[in-house]
Amino acid sequence: MKLFKTLTAAAIISTLSFSVFAAQEITREKAKEMKLEMIGTVDTNSTLSPMDAKRILSGKADEKGGKYFVVIAAGDNGHVHATAEVYK
């Protein structure tokens, strides 16, 4: 039982720590206001939901070293495709 509680606590903490470090979605206006530097773009191949697309874009922005991303294009033709600019 003690092991179960420890594993549960570790899972919750790791989930919270991921969200702390994940790139945040912002608007293009907010990026200009904050005077952020654009460092590239990222996109999704195809997902089934917009939430999955945002999660993937956030992860790819993290990999590029970005702290923020702005979705600039999205489409849904049976699968969600999205492109975002990455900022630091």
Automatic annotation (TrEMBL):
Q: Which domain of life is it from?
A: Bacteria
Cleavable signal peptide: 1-22
Kindly provide the name given to this protein in its UniProt entry: YdgH/BhsA/McbA-like domain-containing protein
- State the UniProt keywords alphabetically: Signal
UniProt lineage? Bacteria, Pseudomonadati, Pseudomonadota, Gammaproteobacteria, Enterobacterales
Q: Where is the YdgH/BhsA/McbA-like domain?
A: 36-88
- Note whether Signal occurs among the keywords: yes
- For whether the record's keyword set contains Acetylation, the answer is no
